[in-house]
Specification:
The complex is a heterotrimer of chains A (about 250), B (about 230) and C (about 250).
Chain A: H1 18-64, H2 67-82, H3 85-95, H4 105-131, H5 134-142, H6 147-177, H7 189-199, H8 204-233
Helix pairs in contact in A: 1-2, 1-4, 1-7, 1-8, 2-4, 3-4, 4-6, 5-6, 6-8, 7-8
Chain B: H1 9-44, H2 47-62, H3 65-75, H4 85-111, H5 114-122, H6 127-142, H7 144-157, H8 169-180, H9 183-211
Helix pairs in contact in B: 1-2, 1-4, 1-8, 2-4, 3-4, 4-6, 4-7, 5-6, 7-9, 8-9
Chain C: E1 4-13, E2 16-26, E3 31-35, H1 42-49, E4 57-62, E5 65-66, H2 74-79, E6 81-84, H3 96-106, H4 112-125, H5 141-153, E7 159-163, H6 171-186, E8 190-194, H7 198-204, E9 207-212, E10 215-220, H8 222-227, H9 232-245
The chains are: A mainly alpha (about 250), B mainly alpha (about 230), C alpha/beta (about 250).
């Protein structure tokens, strides 16, 4: 399966009286659209988790790893940041099926977009870790903590807090990227808008503006929540020092 | 499992690559012009200018690019405006990148210290002159890192135009793969093309930055993406 | 057997040799103060002793165990040596209490309740029990440094290394830190202190070590160095320093 690139037929003339009838169609379709949006949200959470876990590991490898691991991490970052999301999606969904690995659209999208996000997140975390004063690691080691313990109990708790603003940017970006899963046939909200549009060709504008508004709300809510999280986790005196590229 | 590769893919993909580059250049150009105008409307404009600009920016940064593309491609015809696929793509991408660039320019303009403008006016320059000869030369250097980031991003995001039948690098790859079902092999090559493209452009941008660098005029601009 | 033996330490940074063969020892209960012009490697020396900076040549023995050996259990050894930094380096994301009990909990495996009790005792010892729930940014410099001493004490170390503990403090705050340090010395803690505080050195040190250009020029009891130094340079330096910093005790 998978959508062929969309071809467009002749645009019909807009019917009279359509605007009001059109809006009522949209309103009736709202429950379906919102249900489909849940799929976007699920994809968002799944892929951002992948990105978070892998991103942290890659960042740690880059900061604390030996030369080999460091180059590996940097190479990983470079690859996943240079390849377009759509190419990754196609590779994971269609490409892997050549080897007999048939991923569902959801899983393919989670992995493709997740690994991509991880390369951006690893940059963010690396910046945060490097923005911390050297003294923190030294003090942790002087007390006798091993490097792993120091990373776990002293470095990461601070680095994650420092990273929240930049991470919110990535979050906003990723929310919107979930629509790309359309390309591998995921039944997310953009696909549903297309269903509406196919039946009511002249409602294309309204349908897509509705989707746009849905995303507005999603992004806004997400960012509000992240702002609340940042306040809740805030520690007096812990701000970005040294002006690193966060 | 045998992997297949055919040399005749390369010239086809190369053609697609040219289209990709063309699309990128044009939409970035639209983005620069429109973005600068929007940024100046936000920084120097009255309420009547700065508010619509802000709404525009909020909309195009806050909604997915794909939705914007479909709005242009499917939506505009219902208003009687029917554009060929490639122009729809360029328009949507251009409008989108303009919003992001507007924010980067705004940040850079505001990073130029207020004293600069005061000094320019004290010498007798009008506001447009001050902007042109004092503010912009500095702001444009400050904006380079975030702008470079945007350029690279755009290079990759142009790939969405394949969804409206444009035969850019991505679209060409899709067409080849749809015929021979060698999605993996074809798209690995496509990925390599993009890798090479991004690498070359990144190096060129570094050269640019070094060439226009002025000691003491740095940038700490934040990176953002779609 | 001496508690701490420092043998022929050499350290180079790039082309510059910062430590050119430093040797001395420290007995249990002794307090020694290292003085000398800035940049003579005094801080580097301390960091070599707990191997935050590995020396290029030479050995450090803590109770007979080789700290500098690559195969040594460095975390275990560091847990036996306290280190107080010039910049305090308190863990910014933890309260004073959190800072002091992290080591006992994670390195020594103490349970939270026991560690908290211990931490509160050490905070009380440095006079900051009432600030247990404050974050480092909410404390003055002197308070932060005292918490950092409590953090070192909580590990029950065999000795404590002090790297210019008062140099980053405002003059009015120096006193409270020195008071704590003098108390520790009186209680019999083994201490190696790099400092400019001559009053402290004079009243508390068993021996003063004068370093310059990466070597020990002279070492001996305070009286000897102040009144009858063997080297002219020692006398010069002490004179200048006492002029500059006065005698705070």
């Amino acid at each position: 399966m998978g959508p062929p690139p969309v071809a467009r037929g002749e645009a019909p003339f807009p019917e009279r009286g359509t605007p009001i009838a059109g809006i009522s169609v949209i309103i009736r379709s709202l429950p379906d659209l919102l249900r489909a949006t849940i799929l976007n949200i699920e994809l968002l959470l799944a892929l951002i988790t992948v990105g978070l876990v892998v991103g942290t590991v890659v960042a740690l490898l880059e900061v604390y790893g030996g030369r080999g691991l460091r180059y590996l991490a940097m190479g990983y970052e470079w690859v996943f940041r240079s390849i377009p999301a759509l190419v990754l999606l196609i590779l994971f969904y269609f490409g892997l099926s050549e080897f007999g690995i048939n991923l569902s659209p959801f899983l393919a999208a989670t992995l493709a977009l997740g690994f991509r996000s991880s390369s951006y997140q690893s940059q963010i975390f690396r910046g945060a870790i490097q923005a911390l004063p050297h003294g923190q690691m030294q003090a942790a080691r002087s007390v006798g903590l091993s490097r792993t313990q120091a990373i776990r109990h002293v470095i990461l708790p601070q680095a994650f807090r420092l990273a929240i603003p930049a991470w919110s940017n990535e979050f906003s970006s990723v929310v919107k990227d979930t629509t790309l899963a359309y390309a591998v046939g995921l039944n997310e909200v953009l696909r549903h808008a297309r269903f509406i549009m196919v039946r009511h060709y002249n409602l294309a504008m309204l349908a897509y503006i509705t989707v746009a508004l849905i995303f507005f709300v999603l992004t806004y809510t997400g960012n509000r929540w992240l702002g609340w999280l940042e306040k809740r986790l805030r520690i007096p005196g812990l701000e970005a020092r040294g002006g690193g590229t966060l | 499992m045998e992997l297949v590769f055919e040399w005749n893919w390369l010239p086809q993909l190369a053609n697609g690559l040219v289209i990709t580059i063309e699309i990128t250049v044009i939409c970035i150009a639209i983005g620069i012009v429109l973005g600068l105008l929007l940024a100046m409307a936000r920084v120097y404009g009255s309420r009547w200018l700065s508010l619509p600009a802000a709404i525009y920016i909020q909309f195009f940064r806050g909604t997915p690019l794909l939705v914007q593309l479909f709005l242009v491609y499917f939506g505009l015809p219902t208003w009687g405006i029917s554009l060929p696929p490639i122009l729809s793509g360029i328009l949507a991408l251009g409008l989108n990148t303009a919003a992001y660039q507007a924010e980067y320019f705004r940040g850079a303009i505001q990073a130029v210290r207020g004293g600069q403008l005061m000094a320019a006016r004290s010498v007798g320059m009008s506001l447009p002159q001050a902007i042109r000869y004092v503010i912009l030369p500095q702001a444009l250097r400050i904006v380079i890192p975030s702008w470079s980031n945007e350029l690279i991003l755009m290079l990759k995001y142009t790939s969405i135009v394949y969804m409206v039948t444009v035969l850019d690098l991505m679209g060409t790859g899709y067409r080849i793969a749809a015929r021979n079902f060698r999605y993996f092999e074809v798209f690995i090559v496509v990925a390599l093309f993009y890798l090479a493209l991004v690498f070359i452009v990144t190096q060129l941008l570094r050269l640019l930055e070094r060439k226009v660098h002025i000691p003491g005029l740095g940038a700490g601009a934040r990176m953002e993406h779609h | 057997m001496s508690l701490l033996v420092v043998e022929d330490i050499h350290k180079k940074y790039g082309k510059e040799e910062v430590l050119k063969g430093v040797s001395f020892s420290l007995e249990k209960g002794e307090t020694k103060v290292v003085i000398g012009p800035s940049g003579t490697g005094k801080s580097t020396l301390l960091r070599c002793i707990n191997r935050l900076t590995p020396p290029d040549k030479g050995r450090v023995l803590l109770d007979g165990e080789d700290v500098t050996h690559p195969k040594s259990n460095i975390n275990k050894l560091r847990a036996q040596m306290g280190f107080v930094f010039q910049d305090f380096n308190l863990f910014a994301h933890l309260t004073a209490l959190g800072n002091v009990r992290l080591g006992p909990m994670k390195v020594k495996g103490m349970k939270k309740d026991a560690a908290t009790k211990l931490a509160m005792e050490e905070l009380a010892r440095v006079g900051l029990a009432d600030k247990a729930d404050a974050y480092p940014a909410q404390l003055s410099g002197g308070q932060q440094q005292r918490v950092s001493i409590a953090r070192a004490l909580a590990m029950s170390p065999k000795l404590i290394l002090f790297d210019e503990p008062t140099s980053a403090l405002d003059p009015e705050l120096i006193g409270e830190v020195l008071t704590v340090m003098i108390e520790l010395a009186k209680e019999g803690m083994t201490m190696l202190v790099v400092s400019h505080e001559m009053g402290f050195a004079r009243s508390v040190a068993d021996e003063i070590i004068f370093m310059e250009h990466g070597v020990i020029v002279e070492q001996g009891p305070p009286d000897q160095l102040f009144n009858a130094p063997k080297h002219a340079r020692t006398g010069e330096f002490l004179h200048k320093i006492t002029e500059l910093y006065g005698e705070t005790a």
